[in-house]
Fold this protein.
Amino acid sequence: MKAIRLEEPGRFAQVNLEPASAPLQLDEALVRVHRVGVCGTDLHAFRGNQPFFSYPRVLGHELGVEVLDVGGQAEGIRVGQYCAVEPYLNCGTCIACRRGKPNCCVKLAVLGVHTDGGMRETLVVPIRKLHPSKNLTLDQLALVETLAIGCHAVDRAGLEKGEFVLVIGAGPIGLGVMQFAIEAGAQVIVLDIQAQRLEFCRGRLSVPYTIDASRENALEALAEITAGDLPTAIFDATGNGRSMASAFEYPGNSGRLIFVGLFQGEVIFNDPNFHRRELTILASRNARPADFSRIISLIEAKRIDTSPWITHRASLSDVVAEFPLWTKPETGVIKAMIEV
Ligand SMILES: [Zn+2]
Ligand SMILES: [Zn+2]
């Protein structure tokens, strides 16, 4: 079968992979991959700055698939169904799995990151990782994982209706956070340093408040918007150490700080600054199984709009030529979608 493999940093190749020949296990399904969304993780792998990453690797963890065969009876999963895939392969027995948090399993293997993913025609996945929908398009199903990152982060914060929320970073992760914060009834403020991205948030996501930190003093702007209170939930979706450290300046007293983007290094903060506010700091990693089914229902109910997301599109054979362009912010890429 045709596949695209990242052979080493900076070099994709079209390869021919043997389709799986072993019979399916009772808990496995064979799926036809139709859509693969591309995200920051894939770009980092391409540039060679994704930690704990080994080459060669078939990328692709944001998938819209069709069920071709199942190894055994599985409740709710039938041949021919279209599904989103939860790409987090967890062990089921570690402390996190036992506590119902497979998203941070001690032995977590993410499809397309730690193990070969979906940039190929067919794939075998555990049946329990499939999340079907009758109505969603394959494009929408391939967006569910990326949206799930934002959904889980907003869940971690436990937002209240009407509270002011700041999202730092208007890239794809930040956009997901904004959509679910709006859905939770929060008043969303977004901070970025690119005017074009802020314009997009106002125009396409109806975010009411934006701050351009390249021109404005962020703290003053936040105080003005919130009548001096400051926002009570701050999401950092930049994965930038400097941004994460300065995020400690922004929460109102009693607020919480949620790190969604991750950064390879230390974030240092001033303890009195943290204590005075009685701040809560939360990490948010991947997403939980229930987020996938919830997002599918929200898209079905038209409460989450997926139309702003896909800006670029390519066939599997065009990935080798097109992928390097998607690493350039000046192409205005939000989400590139591969049609397999
Ligand atoms: Zn992703
Ligand atoms: Zn585990």
Summary: The CA atoms of residues 28 and 126 lie 4 Å apart. The longest helix spans residues 138-157. The first strand starts at residue 2 and ends at 8. The two ends are 11 Å apart (CA to CA).
